[in-house]
Amino acid sequence: MKFGSAIVLMALGAILSFAVQDAIAGFDLTVAGYILMAAGALLFIVSLIQMGVASSANRRISESRTVQDPHTGESIRRDETRDY
């Protein structure tokens, strides 16, 4: 969702900056386009960072098992951590 929003902001900003030749009194469309492109680029970078953090957090699984030996009654605990 954020990637799509970022691309839309950058595309809209590029259109306003480079393709629109109209002028509005007291409002510079070129500067507004540059601002939209910068906001889109910033949103794209933030999305990439969040995706990297979320994917690295979901790649590690920890498991703990406790088994009791039926003959001796001794408990054995086994901890495992796996990366995917």
UniProtKB/TrEMBL annotation:
The chain crosses the membrane at residues 31-53. Residues 60-84 have a biased composition (Basic and acidic residues). Residues 57-84 are annotated as: Disordered. Keywords: Membrane, Transmembrane, Transmembrane helix. Residues 1-80 form the DUF6458 domain. This is DUF6458 family protein.
